[in-house]
Design a protein that fits this description.
The complex is a heterodimer. Helices cover 37% and strands 22% of the residues of chain A. By secondary structure, chain A is of the alpha/beta class. Chain A is elongated, with a radius of gyration of 24 Å. By secondary structure, chain B is an all-beta fold. Classes of the chains: A alpha/beta, B mainly beta. The interface between A and B is small, with 9 and 6 residues.
């Protein structure tokens, strides 16, 4: 595959992983790319590498531009192995004069590769360094999404190399936002935010306002996954503001109900909760965990102001499929949303309480009432389920009025 | 004592004036008085990873 010439003396090295489908538990139906960037000049500089296993493709692409040994500097924006996996090999081939990185990134790189004698050059947040005709303005972006995450802003070009932020898992032949379908691009970007960045939404909000106050002009955003934003970089920045916000009134009347079911009783409850929410004007998605991947459910949850989870009680507890989803959601912290819990049971009915514990830890504002129905819901029970949906809608209304 | 403490991992700053509402820590609670099981609200590490702010 060919490197991409972004402009004179600036290239993208887009290592494309067409075959990956499971990215540590996040489903990537269209593969992904691991993008590095190469600037030529007085000091030839490589920004990040790629995932281990793609050495031939990575160094092959670089060799179409220059010999790897002619690279002078390496900048490490993020220590995660999908971007630093070829760093050891790169250091051996390049023998860099300097490796620029933050102090947090240096610690993480040493803890990954156990090399303390590399020529590390610690850079602080806001510090600038010259790579010849270009100046790199370095930004520490801790917890977006690891402590070591950083951005490199190419000052003269007004190009932001943004590491994982503004990226998406999508292997495409298009290299820029104007070369791919925009709706699909936003769908992949939203999924990425929901599954990678959501726990750190408050940090994202802070960073976006900091960048706004710095008045950085951004002509192009070059992330480490997916396509580069050159036509409309502001569109993804605005989307990040929207997705980071905990303001439920911005999300509006949108709900996600996810559940598993043994004998269709919990499923019937889900349908009637749907009716209640819909009667109050909500746009509702019902997602059966058996047929929807956890990362797709999370993507729906990102846009929702109401999240409802259901599980039957199995062997005095929650169904393992539902606990998988709840454990995943708890870590991603969709806090501030309205939550509800429901489920059918036979005799003891522990599942609903377990759901509520997960949801509380995820930061959801739970309805006090939890909905449990014995065995198979009767018509009267289904009316109660519909009313539960209405109560969730009412809690949404009272919450946004209080905000 | 109103010393602020900074998380060495993620940069979160604990300000005693604000406490930590999500963990039911009242405003005015000095860092030293935080419970031993209190964790950084951003990245989840323990109190031992915090340093006094400069």
């Amino acid at each position: 595959m060919e490197p991409v010439k972004i402009k004179e003396n600036l290239y993208q090295i887009p290592v494309t992983d067409w075959n990956v489908r499971d990215f540590h538990g996040y489903s990537v139906y269209n593969g992904t790319t691991y993008n590095a960037y190469l600037s030529l000049g007085e000091k030839n500089t490589l920004f990040d590498t790629a995932k281990k296993g793609f050495s031939e493709e990575f160094f092959g692409m670089i060799s179409k531009i220059i010999e790897p040994k002619d690279i002078d500097y390496i900048v490490v924006n993020h220590a995660e192995p999908d971007h630093s996996g070829l760093l050891t090999e790169a250091v051996e081939k390049i023998k860099p004069e300097k490796i620029f990185l933050s102090s947090a990134c240096q610690k993480a790189i040493i803890d990954h590769y156990h090399k303390t004698d590399w020529p590390f050059e610690i850079v602080k947040d806001g510090q600038e360094f010259s790579i010849g005709s270009r100046t790199v303005h370095f930004l520490e972006t801790r917890m977006l999404h690891w402590p070591d995450s950083c951005f490199s802003y190419l000052k003269e070009d007004e190009i932001l190399i943004s590491s994982d932020a503004f990226g998406h898992h999508w292997a495409s032949s298009g290299r820029y936002d104007d070369e791919v379908d925009n709706a699909e691009l936003m769908r992949h970007s939203k999924k990425y935010f929901a599954n990678i960045l959501l726990p750190y939404a408050p940090m994202a909000e802070k960073l976006l306002s900091k960048v706004a106050s710095m008045n950085l002009s951004i002509k192009m955003i070059c992330p480490d996954h997916g396509v580069m934003w050159r036509k409309d970089p502001v569109s993804i920045i605005n989307k990040y503001k929207e997705w980071s916000s905990k303001d439920l009134s911005l999300k509006g009347k949108k709900a996600t109900i996810f559940y598993d079911t043994m004998w269709h009783s919990t499923e019937k409850m889900a349908d009637s909760i749907f009716d209640g929410l819909k009667s109050k004007g909500f746009d509702v998605d019902i997602m059966n965990i058996r047929v929807n991947h956890r990362s797709d459910i999370m993507t729906q949850i990102l846009d929702s102001s109401v999240v409802v989870a259901g599980s039957p009680t199995l062997n005095n507890g929650i169904m393992p499929t539902v606990s998988d989803m709840l454990c995943y959601m708890r870590g991603l912290k969709p806090s501030g949303k309205i939550g509800g819990c429901f489920g059918s049971y036979g005799w003891s009915g522990e599942a609903v309480k377990e759901i509520s514990e997960y949801m509380t830890k995820a930061g959801l504002k739970l309805l006090d009432e939890q909905l449990k129905i014995k065995y198979v819901p009767s018509n009267e029970d289904l009316v109660l389920c519909k009313e539960y949906g209405i109560k969730l809608a009412d809690k949404f209304e009272s919450t946004i009025q209080g905000e | 004592m109103d010393t602020k403490f900074v998380c060495s991992i993620c940069g979160y700053e604990y300000d005693p004036a604000n406490g930590d509402d999500n963990a039911d820590i009242a405003p005015g609670t000095p860092f030293e008085n935080l419970p031993d099981d209190w964790v950084c609200p951003v990245c989840g590490v323990g109190k031992d990873q915090f340093e006094p702010a400069e």
